[in-house]
Amino acid sequence: MTFQLILLAIFLAVMAVWFTAEGIRGKKKKIRQLKSQFGKVPSGDYRRAGTSHYWEGWRALCSEQGLVDERTWDDLEMEDLFDRINACRTLVGEGYLYALLHRRLGAEEQQEQEELLSQLEDEPFRLQVQTELLRLGKRTGIDLPSLLYDPESYALEGERGLTLFALLPLASLPLFPFFPSAGAALLLGALGHNIWRYLKIQKKLEGRLETISYQLAVFALARRLQKFFRTRCPQRAAKLGQLAALSDQIGKTMVLLSPSPQSNGYLLVQMLGILTLFPILQYRRAVRIFDAERAKTQALFEQIGEIDAAQAILSYRHSLPLWTTPVFEEKLSIRAESLLHPLLTESDCVPNDAQIEANWLLTGSNASGKSTFIKAVALNAILAQSIHTCTASRFVLCRAAVVTSMAARDDLSAGESYFVAEIKSMRRVVALAGGAMPFYCFIDEVLKGTNTAERVAASCAVLRYLCRPGCLCVAATHDLELTELLGDRYENRHFSEQVGEQGVTFDYKLKEGPCRTTNAIRLLGYYDFPPVVVAEAKNWMKRRTAPESGREE
User: Fold this and answer.
1) Residue pair 397/329 in contact by the 8 Å Cβ criterion
2) Are 460 and 492 spatial neighbours (Cβ–Cβ below 8 Å)?
3) Distances (CA, A) of 184 to 163, 169, 443
4) Which of 18, 131, 350, 476 has its C-alpha lying 20 to 30 A from 137's C-alpha?
5) Residue 452 neighbours by CB distance under 10 Å
6) Domain C-terminal end among 319, 342, 373
């Protein structure tokens, strides 16, 4: 017996050393991974369908006017921008960052954001925080926003006798010394029932048990982060501690029985839970507490999300060739120096300066850079007010909403043509112009889905209507007539190109005044269309323009 105990002790010691060594190696590997990924473009992660759920729930409960509506989000391809910034380590951070890019933060909120970013600039501290965030990780099948905003949907109804059957395996143990057969039968029967019941309930819960488990892991993360922030930011540490204390009402058993899949004892603990039903009992208790304390769980989500999003924003800043924090003023204007498009690399994007203090009408040839410039200004106006980061050497603006009308599409499911979709998009812009909320308006190709005469007339009327206090409009158009019709209301800027023997070249530089050239017919010739096609196009343009101005293409 003594020899066997010695062997057992040696085995346990070896296992303890092995687990410790594995833990140290794993931590060092995570730190190397975090160091190598910081300041780099995030690798393509799979798209999570639930990323937007937190924003949708927050927006439904809050009366605050958002910075970006869904049409603007689509026009500016902000899903791609979110992916570009998203170096978040947790589902909480992803959901918070997605919501943050829709919101307009106030001066005080952005000051707190900058203080947090400043703290995370310290690499050893940042690595501590990132390691803990990575420990929580991103599990599949988790839908925290539904738990935050609708905990009643998580209630477990119609399941009785759970406590009794959870205790039966323990109750069978005293029978073994006296009635071993009865004890074994009771134990096996209870375990078999519990496995069947657990699998049945788990299917019924459809992943909600994992969501509760993940939420409890968020509480545990808050406690660990509280220690790190205690000396650096006592106020944040105190808030994290108060929110994490909610887990004390639930009890520690659920945390022990629902560890992260990354932990060494995950499978063992999961098996123990299946046999005893304890996770189900704690699940039921946790749901009742979350329902009573939903305000606190929502606040905890924001605290953890803000920290995770901050380290992602900091990594985004370090990955950029050029960035600055914005300067805010009261005047509704935008002044930018060396402005770049956030989704283009330095080699793919030519920087531009812009002083937009009045409405602008932007003209230029196809592919000359109009759309890219407009999107660069609009995206930076959003980034300035959400993550306090602009891809420019200087960016000055007023806090105001951003609305766009671009890239309309046919909606066959709704029976809508391109032009109807475009009209609806413009209608929401016009509606804002009649209100009290200041906003920036960016329009790419006004009402291009109709014939030339009506397009010019309607575009002129709409753009004149937008010349109201509280609206600053930048509109791009191919209709050069508008530069004359709106010359008293809009300042003209343009992009241009050169077509020569070497082909078409663009400098992508913003220039004063309206565009005086077109390139569509010249491009036909450059790209080797049949000479007869080019000649007929030139003749048609000659006949069309000669009576009006005597000019030829």
Assistant:
1) yes
2) no
3) 20, 10, 76
4) 18
5) 11
6) 319
**What does 3-63 look like in DSSP terms, one character per residue?**
HHHHHHHHHHHHHHHHHHHHHHHHHHHHHHHHHHHTTSPPP-PPPPTTTTHHHHHHHHH--
Total length of the chain: 553
Name the packing angle between helices 162-172 and 266-276 (round to 10°): 100
User: What CA–CA distance (Å, rounded) separates 496 from 363?
Assistant: 9
Same domain, 296 and 180: yes
The answer to whether residues 281 and 147 belong to one domain is yes
- Whether the per-residue pLDDT at 333 is higher than 60: the answer is yes
**Whether pLDDT at 504 is above 80:** no
Bridge partners, 511 (sequence order): 494
Residues 59 and 143 in one domain: yes
Q: Are residues 174 and 66 in the same domain?
A: yes
Cα–Cα separations (whole angstroms), residue 484 to 363, 460, 489: 12, 10, 10
DSSP run (H or E) holding 304: helix 294-319
Residues 98 and 143 in one domain: yes
Could you give the 3-state DSSP secondary structure of residue 328? strand
338 and 460 assigned to the same domain: yes
And the tokens for 321?
A: 């060739």
Alpha helices (H) along 121-252 = 123-136, 144-149, 162-172, 180-205, 208-232, 234-244, 246-250
Residue 545: half-sphere exposure toward Cβ, Cα within 13 Å:
13
**Separation of alpha carbons 33 and 130, rounded Å:** 11
Domain span holding position 538: 519-553
Q: What percentage of the chain reaches a pLDDT higher than 90?
A: 43
Phi-psi region of 13 (alpha: psi -120 to 50; beta: other; left: phi over 0): alpha
**pLDDT per residue as tens digits for the range 254-263:** 554 455 555 5
Name the helix (H) or strand (E) containing 361: strand 360-364
238-242, 256-260, 261-265, 362-366: segment of lowest average pLDDT: 256-260
Q: What span, in angstroms and rounded, lies between the C-alpha atoms of 287 and 294?
A: 10
Is the CB of residue 363 less than 8 Å from the CB of residue 287?
no
Domain for residue 507, yes or no? Answer: yes
- Amino acid identity at 236: R
CATH (domain of 405): 3.40.50.300
**Look-up of token digits 């109201």:** 468
Of 194-203, 288-297, 400-409, the least confident? 194-203
Is residue 20 in some structural domain?
Answer: no
Same domain, 497 and 535: no
Q: Are 390 and 479 in a shared domain?
A: yes
Say if 14 falls within a structural domain.
Answer: no
83 located within any domain: yes
| 374 three-state secondary structure | helix
